[in-house]
Amino acid sequence: MNSLLSRAELQALRQMENVPRELPQVEQLAAGLAHEINTPLGYVQSNFDMLRDYLPPLLDLLQHYRQAEDDLRTPDVAAALRTRREAAQLDFLRDDIPQLMREAGEGIARVRQMVQDMRAFACGESGPEWQCVDLHPGIDATLDIARSEVRRKADIVREYGDLPPLACLPSQIYQVVMNLVVNAAHAMDARRGRITVRTGRAGDNGWLAVCDTGSGIAPEVLPRIFEPFYTTKPVGEGTGLGLALVQGIVQRHGGRIEVETAPGLGSTFRVLLPLRQQGPAPAGLAVLP
Question: Does the model's pTM come out above 0.85?
Fold first, then answer.
């Protein structure tokens, strides 16, 4: 039977065997979906990368053929080529195909991010250790990465306070910032808005807050925003795991999230984290009860 499966399919089956069977049902579903999506996504990514490499020389060749039309000594041949070029809309395709490729690449990147979110939600990291770090440079880098998602909808404002080095798993805290900022961008209405990222200290806790001037959260939706797979976005535009992943990371750090929101007036997500941690970091990602 194995001889009928591709190498990628065999690898996916081996990965599926490593999904922890003791995971709660919703986590096991997320892990299974991530593995199921990863295999065909790998084919698409590989073929897309090859096509992206093939395309520039082909377009360049078409442009040389286009320029050569005027140099042909046989008017009938030149006219026939021109007719075929116009019928095939080659001039339009030379501009449109790169745009289609860019959009396809963005779509693939978004799906890969969804898969990573589902894997992180289901399995967390293995064997991490607390690191005492200044979060501000990493938050800056995270906001730079998020800019492509945010720039059409909002301006990002940084208002950093006196936040001392904090014991944490830095990559996970930056994931929290990323998810909250992207969610804030998605909450914007037709007007261009503002997303403010603040930090500070409150006693033995450090805190970071993401505030937006978006549409706010409806009262009937607010109790469910941290539920895994719950989303108010249209089908195909979200997994419903972003805030669930944020909640899990914050719980893993022994922290908490406070939410202030009002319909039409925006929302503020404030994350409080202990400055110091007792004992080793847990091996699995904390999830909602």
Answer: no
